[in-house]
TrEMBL record:
It comes from Parabacteroides absconsus. Residues 26-145 form the SHSP domain. CDD domains: ACD_sHsps-like. This is Hsp20/alpha crystallin family protein. The lineage of its organism: Bacteria, Pseudomonadati, Bacteroidota, Bacteroidia, Bacteroidales. SUPFAM superfamilies: HSP20-like chaperones. Pfam families: HSP20.
Length: 145
């Protein structure tokens, strides 16, 4: 419980508004980024991003020039109220979620075979590893003429 504050005549209005809008029970949107798991097996890496309520259309995944896997998501929600007669807003919330994370890819990822899907509130990105034969082709020796 917060102690009672003394208000003088000059600043009591801002303090009342601050007390009302700064309560602990009011959680601010985007306070934290979604949880990310990275899993490695012999054949691949998997990146899992917690994405409750998101669809595949809310995501953008691409490879950067710096060999990074860039994952971004953006979702906007606005609640519209049709019956506004004799009502005025004291507070109305819009929901906006935005997130971007760049992960440096290991050298053994086969970039041509990366795929992703969203299911049950989780974005899963599969990053297959190159076979030993494919690695040998990449690490070939260049002859000097």
């Amino acid at each position: 419980m917060t102690p009672m504050r003394k208000y003088n005549n000059q600043n009591w209005i801002p303090s009342i508004f601050n007390d009302f809008f700064d309560n602990d029970w009011m959680v601010k949107a985007n306070a934290t980024a979604p949880a990310i798991n990275v899993i490695e097996s012999d054949k691949d890496y998997k990146v899992e991003v917690a994405a409750p309520g998101m669809t595949k259309n809310d995501f953008n995944i691409h490879l950067s020039e710096d060999n990074e896997l860039v994952i971004s998501m953006e979702k906007k929600n606005e609640t519209k109220e049709e019956d506004k007669e004799n009502k005025k807003y004291l507070r109305r919330e819009f929901s906006y979620t935005q997130f971007q994370q760049a992960l440096v890819l290991p050298d053994d990822v086969d970039k041509d075979k990366i795929n992703a899907n969203v299911s049950d509130g989780v974005l899963t990105i599969e990053l297959p590893k190159r076979t030993p034969e494919e690695k040998a082709k990449v690490n070939r020796v260049i002859e000097i003429h």
